[in-house]
2OG-Fe(II) oxygenase (Mangrovibacter phragmitis), 327 residues
Amino acid sequence: MNQPFTATYLLDELNKEATMGAPGLEAQREVRVIDMQNFVQRKTEIADAIWAAATDIGFFQLKNHGIPLQDIQAAFERAEQFFALPQEIKARYPLNRNAGWESKAQIRPSTGTPDQKESWQLTRPRMAGLWPEEEILPGFKQETLAFEHQCWALGMQVLSCFALKLGFSEDFFTTAHDPASPGYQSTLRMLHYYPVPLNTQSWRAGAHTDFDCLTLLFQRAGQGGLQVCPGKEHQSQAWTPIEPHDDVITCNIGDMLMRWSDDLLPSNFHRVRNPRPGEYNGPRYSLAFFCQANEDVVIQGPQGKYPPVSAKDYLAQRVSANFSGKY
Ligand SMILES: O=C(O)CCC(=O)C(=O)O
Ligand SMILES: [Fe+2]
């Protein structure tokens, strides 16, 4: 790992990502926790707090966010059940365009090595043949769809705060991520990082920024390893560990929102490191919801800092740079 990986991409963010594979340093940074209680009444105050955290520190966490803890725990249990299925069953749901299952297929431009994980992704319009059947995992489909919707609704609340601060109409991003559209491409991802023998030289997930507008990341207490480096400080290569807590959701700004805000909202680099000697080194599960604008939506900020690109073309370029040219 960590050998310099040289490639040239058409997108600036991919060229930047290719420079981020080194171990770097550790740095403590403030992790601001935003209280989402009484969102409607407190929206202006919440929007100010989210904006300040996103622009000063680059990442933040949500508490009292309205997704019941028992629903999150049930979603983790479904992920464990899915990943415990025999390999030959999971292989019946192969990844295609951010939907379905893959194992060790994601090669980050930063590291040039495969992430030590498997994942299954739900992208609503693309799920034909990719659901585990009722007799294999009863209730999985219905409950996972319901959880995806809860994530979408919370993601849209947060994005409406960014819309407010950017001077866009407050429903701008909700329209851009309309689940009723056939071009809907927001994704719920279940992740399972394999147990790692101690002193193994690899990354559970190599350094990257997300492709989307906003990511909601759910982690489990005791299963650490996430490290974050704010986009505006990426040259420092100084990484802040994020301690997992069951009652908060960690949020990352992704590259779609960076583009849409003409860089006012920098996307965050993050990665998942291996356990160190003495740390828990068993399996690690996480859940991520990626708010990815619908295929036909054109991403461009008011200042036109980046050329216009459809969210479909943008995602296709980012996914294929991570999956050996496949989309
Ligand atoms: O599992 C984690 O904590 C991070 C996952 C992640 O960054 C991703 O899938 O984009
Ligand atoms: Fe990520």
The two ends are 25 Å apart (CA to CA). Residues 12-322 form a domain with the Jelly Rolls fold (CATH 2.60.120.330). DSSP finds eight helices and 15 strands in the chain. The chain has a mean pLDDT of 93.
